[in-house]
């Protein structure tokens, strides 16, 4: 039994003792300690992980950083005339245009033959998870193979065509052809109950073809009292045209007519002194809503 207060001195072992330490990466490191005594340990051998500070364990080696930097993908901006095959060949992309398309599918879209000037493509980078599409269907594979075989160059945008000038809903014409004008609009006198002429008279002999000045719907076709046989047409713009003193009528109320279509023949029915066509433009279907008929026709492009 050892004496009180005394410590037994451990004996030195001349035999080299090996300690197996777990190194980084799972490799075993044997540190030979010769004649180690008590608490005095031999200096750590080079490469020993026991002396490595915590910060060193987590820091990436400089070589790894350089390797990661070397793998940083370059970018390429598409110019006119480019195609994926041309870019892949020019930039020596491993995997060719297929790899280039796979890495840039989100930018290019579903058709690899359609790339546009200004698009920024990544060269040599691994495609993001969102861009790595699942295996395409048979139909989509067939369509993509057709497009990829061509690897068509960038399509130039079609020139923008100027918009055609607006076309009026309907054209207008004169109610009779080659006929002189007699009594003008707003001529005053006692011959008219309103004190003035509400239309314009064309000096058409009886039997002259009377035409609709514009497309519309017939609202009146028959006896108009002092107007004699008359036709009133409502047009698309809400205006009305009246044709009076006709010798005969060839349309009926409710009928749709086109610009230039025959409505009847001129005559001398009603309150007249001789054959002529009394023509009015109105804002409504009835007497008293007249406007200048020739001014209206000129506004529609009719040469008078």
Offer a few descriptive terms.
two-stranded antiparallel sheet, 7 helices, Glucose Permease (Domain IIA), alpha+beta, Membrane-bound Lytic Murein Transglycosylase D, Chain A, about 300 residues
CATH fold annotation of the domain at 200-299: Glucose Permease (Domain IIA)
Alpha-beta content class: alpha+beta
Give the overall shape, derived from the CA principal axes: rod-shaped
Q: Using the coordinates above, name the CATH class of the domain at 200-299.
A: Mainly Beta
| CATH-defined superfamily of the domain at 200-299 | Glucose Permease (Domain IIA)
Q: Point out poorly predicted stretches.
A: 14-60, 131-136, 164-169
Rg over alpha carbons: 50 Å
Number of strands: 13
Overall average residue pLDDT:
75
Bin the strand percentage.
15-25%
What's the end-to-end separation, in Å? Answer: 144 Å
Description:
There is one protein chain. The chain is rod-shaped. The strands form 3 sheets. Strands 5, 6, 7, 8, 9, 10, 11, 12 and 13 form a 9-stranded antiparallel β-sheet that branches. The chain has 304 residues and is α+β, with helices and mostly antiparallel strands. 17% of the residues lie in helices and 22% in strands. The longest helix has 13 residues, at 138-150.
